[in-house]
Amino acid sequence: MNASAIIRLKDVSVAYQKDLVLTKINLQIDEGEFVTVLGPNGAGKTTLLTTINGLGRIRGGEVWIFGIRLTPSRAGEIRKEIGYVPQILNLDPRMPIRVRDVVRIGRFGKVGLIHRLSSRDEDIVDEVMALTGIKDFSLRPIGHLSGGELQKVQIARALAQEPRILLLDEPTSNLDLRAQYELLDLIEQIYLERSITIVFVTHILSHIPPSSSRLLLMKRGKITFDGPRGRALQRNRIGDLYGIPDHDLPL
Amino acid sequence: MGFPITIFHYKFLLRAIFASILGGLGCGMIGVWIILARIPFVGVAMSHAAFAGAITGLLFGLNPLLMAILFALIASGLIGPVAERADLDPNISLGIIFSILLGIAFLGMGLLHGPKTEALNFIWGNILLLSDSDLLSLLIIVLVILLILILFFKEIMAVLFHREIARSVGIPERSIFYLLITLAGLTVALSLNTIGGLLIFSLIINPPSAAYQLTYDLKQMFFLSGLFGVISCLFGLLFSYLFNTPTGAVIIITSSVIFGIALIFSPKR
């Protein structure tokens, strides 16, 4: 294993009650890589992300992030450098929080308890809001946004952390075609401009971003394939991944 | 015209006015995080924990207020983890905690000898019979709530927006959440004498629910909720003074009417 990898999982297992959702996962991702995790629902893709940022609790194995062993006591500090966009949030439309406040949350961990955001922090918030194209509705209540707008706000909030790693959990699911296109375009732009290490989870083949050259295929808590995009997207492999006949695949 | 001047001559009424302002403010503010965290049952369980503690204190000849605080703190320690467990519906577990506490309280009531006036005060509250120390403890908890809100407003906002996201950006979300639950327990325990164990739940829920209808700004919601809590308590006090009615009941009816009006004029409808 490469000790300088930015993300390193060694024999990691995660269980909910008695059900193993990740089984002895071994993985390493180098700085600047754009990795897509592809697999059917229930494969353990989300759990893989929450294992990387320490939100989930592992049953066995070791997780190393930035060369530091991830433990409950260190997770808080490590998470400040990891932007996380969970699956689309189900928010109350009456929630008394505005778009800009949600983006500012991205700075809260780095600023630390008690301290207020500095003008530099506010500048970073402005910058990521401009990058993600959400400046025009910065004062809108967060619950009033469309699915696509909300995902852009979530990405802006994660970028406000100035993260070294960006974890995206099915950000394009449940969006209309235009919103999917815009969001994938935005993710491409972020990767090309900022060279952040990205781990992108999806279960939809057509949503794999063009810049993602490495694919992990996951099924039933295991990584069944880890390699270049071209070799991953072969009919037999994808057919096996989703449990459908090769000839029915739209590849 | 002589009425307002006359009533201010009474020290007990001045105390009651201060208690109304402090109780209304405290319950109104902690109610905001109970409502936004969507854990209204926590308010019920907490108020009955404090109530059971006070009755236990009376039964064993201990200070009822201290016992109410102790029980509320124990309940805070239990309720936090219970509300977090994914494998149990928090409403079911909280319902069970609530019924145990209610059982303890009424068992204590049954075992109490002699007149039960003091015990009944913890159910209905009696704002006119507060001591200086009752008032001082209310003042301290309200100041603590204000201080926590000022110091940790950004963290509280993040936790109330989404707990997992708050944790993912590196905020000590669990500590903030437990701090809020503990403060809620302490406020409820210290407001028992004023509002009463059975009615305080409404004062925690109604003012923030009314404020929730009127604003998209969290700071404004805290302000409006505190204001509605104070108005409810002062109106309840005035009404009970003029017409000799139970204060707690009028406080609750007033806060419910405020909620109704807020709902009618809500821009969020």
Task: Give a written overview of the molecule.
Chain A: Residues 7-245 form the ABC transporter domain. Chain A: InterPro entries: AAA+_ATPase, ABC_transporter-like_ATP-bd, ABC_transporter-like_CS, Metal_Ion_Import_ABC, P-loop_NTPase. Chain A: This is ABC transporter ATP-binding protein. Chain A: Pfam families: ABC_tran. Chain A: One of its GO terms (molecular function) is ATP binding. Chain B: Belongs to the ABC-3 integral membrane protein family. The complex is a heterodimer of chains A (251) and B (269). Chain A has 251 residues and is an alpha/beta fold. Chain A folds into two domains: 1-81 and 164-182 and 190-251, Rossmann fold, CATH 3.40.50.300; 89-163, no CATH class. In chain A, 34% of the residues lie in helices and 25% in strands. Chain A has helices at residues 45-52, 72-79, 99-111, 119-132, 147-159, 177-194, 229-232, 235-242, and strands spanning 7-16, 19-29, 34-38, 60-65, 68-69, 82-85, 165-169, 197-202, 214-219, 222-228. In chain A, the strands form two sheets. Chain A has a six-stranded mixed sheet with strand order 6-7-8-3-9-10, sandwiched between helices. Chain A has a four-stranded antiparallel sheet with strand order 2-1-4-5, covered by helices on one side. The longest helix of chain A is centred in the last third of the chain and has 18 residues, at 177-194. Chain A is globular, with a radius of gyration of 18 Å. Chain A starts with 6 loop residues before the first strand and ends in a 9-residue tail after the last helix. With 269 residues, chain B is an all-alpha fold. Chain B has a single domain, classed as ABC transporter involved in vitamin B12 uptake, BtuC, CATH 1.10.3470.10. Chain B is 81% helix and 0% strand. Chain B contains 14 helices and no strands. Chain B has helices spanning 2-7, 11-36, 40-59, 64-84, 90-111, 117-124, 132-151, 153-161, 163-168, 173-190, 192-195, 200-214, 218-243, 247-264. The longest helix of chain B is centred in the N-terminal third of the chain and has 26 residues, at 11-36. Chain B is globular and about 55 Å long. At the A-B interface, helix 2 and helix 3 of A face helix 8, helix 9 and helix 13 of B.
